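User: Hey, my collaborator sent me this sequence without any context and asked if I could get a structure. I don't really work with proteins. Can you help?
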Amino acid sequence: MTLNTQRPVQCKGRDVRSMGDSGSKQSQASHVEAVYRKQGYRLLGRNQHSAVKICRWTKESLRANRVCYKELWYPPVESHRCMQMTPYLGCNYHCRYCWRLHSGDRSKATWREFPFKGMKLDDPREIVAEAVEARRTLLVGFQGNPRVDEARVKEALRPTMMTMSLTGEPTLYPRISELIVEAGRRGMITFLVTNGTMPEVLEAMDPLPFQLYVSVSAPDKGLHTTITRPLLRDGWERLNRTLRLLPSLETRTVIRLTVIKGWNNTNHRGYAELIGKAEPNFIEVKAYEWVGASQKRLPKEAMPFMDDVRHFAERIAELTGYQIKAEYQPSGAILLA
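Assistant: No problem. I've predicted the 3D structure and written it out in structure-token form, which is a compact way to encode the shape of the chain:
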């Protein structure tokens, strides 16, 4: 596994440590790969900065015909034909609510996540081709299962959608537009989820993804820094540049608000002002889930009830003029449009 192991990034007293000598680097890389594999990821390419994983809702769709809210809200999504992947495992944020593995979460899993510098890049064609094949291998267990519709499994093996949201920050991969082109060549639409820290990338993208999500984690700079724990100094300013850019982008746009009870579920007017800049087609209000690595960063009480999410969404609707159009309790999600 190839990982960027240059000298540590110093950021407000926090240290993203290097891996030491070459033997230690190889050991660290092997450990990181083993952790990802155990969690169901498959790393891609010669340099392995990309990954794919079977989404919970792909499995649910095949096993029980229960679909993701994206299929219900955003045609033409089909949950069993969605390929969840990332072109870059690292991130320039270490959000408290993220359930993914961050560098430094474990003593033997430390690598250089940001800045993306000095790493060898895999070709977009190689990444997409390997993602499709690895996903196909991961779905093998559904073939021959008498409780799963055979025709549906065959459809699932041919993804029609590539969602770049698995882990990390996708816009840190410099060839992301080419990745979208390659997905389109294979008959897939693309969804892209970003933390909004790379407005220059979004502005230059050609083509844009079919649907663009921007995560807004807090209503003001201080709280934003506390929750996202950025590895760059101007994350808040970059997010605001992205929000101001959104109305000019010719694609379907969504602002995602993740509600963390007792942390970021106040100052609704602050959120409304940010939404006013972005003028998104949709707003998703979604409950934080106390799962994965986030359990070591936040208390269980930070996971809101559906009533909490609904109250938050109602306040956002009152202040923005958007209307609540749907809710999906299994994911703790509410749609405004």
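In plain terms: Residues 9-336 form a domain with the TIM Barrel fold (CATH 3.20.20.70). You can pass these tokens on to your collaborator as they are.
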